[in-house]
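hey
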């Protein structure tokens, strides 16, 4: 089975519920369970919303787990996980994800450039230089 965006009203309802309760971990986990039980657990949009929800709740381990089990990722998937790591001040992991993204998915420099505007990423510029990035 592969990931895809499913045009179904139930997927839209589940996605909206995840966005609505993104700071209530217990409620959002219930929506996550419902998406799996209804068979929509492989939808790219739902996965992206799950990553965002777990990141907003500060549960980056679960956000990374959802990301890692995705069969297909898009620029939203990568950026959402990177921003989650930025929210907790983890510039190193953000840069690691950026390099992984470019190796696997092509050139998404524009999404990373926006992340450098974040206050928490300022230390990442010097870290990036050490890792061989040119600015």
């Amino acid at each position: 089975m592969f990931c895809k965006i499913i045009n179904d009203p139930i997927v839209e309802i589940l996605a909206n519920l995840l966005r609505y309760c993104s700071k209530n971990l217990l409620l959002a986990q219930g929506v996550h369970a419902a998406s799996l039980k209804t068979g929509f657990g492989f939808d790219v949009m739902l996965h992206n919303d799950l990553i965002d929800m777990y990141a907003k709740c500060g549960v980056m381990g679960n956000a990374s787990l959802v990301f890692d089990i995705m069969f297909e990722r898009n620029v939203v998937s990568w950026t959402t996980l990177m921003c989650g790591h930025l929210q907790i001040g983890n510039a190193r992991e953000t840069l690691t994800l950026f390099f992984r993204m470019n190796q696997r998915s092509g050139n998404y420099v524009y999404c990373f450039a926006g992340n450098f505007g974040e206050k928490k990423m300022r230390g990442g510029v010097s870290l990036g230089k050490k890792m061989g990035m040119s600015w």
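The chain has two domains: 1-72, 74-135. The helical segments are 9-20, 25-37, 44-56, 60-69, 75-87, 91-105, 109-115, 122-130.
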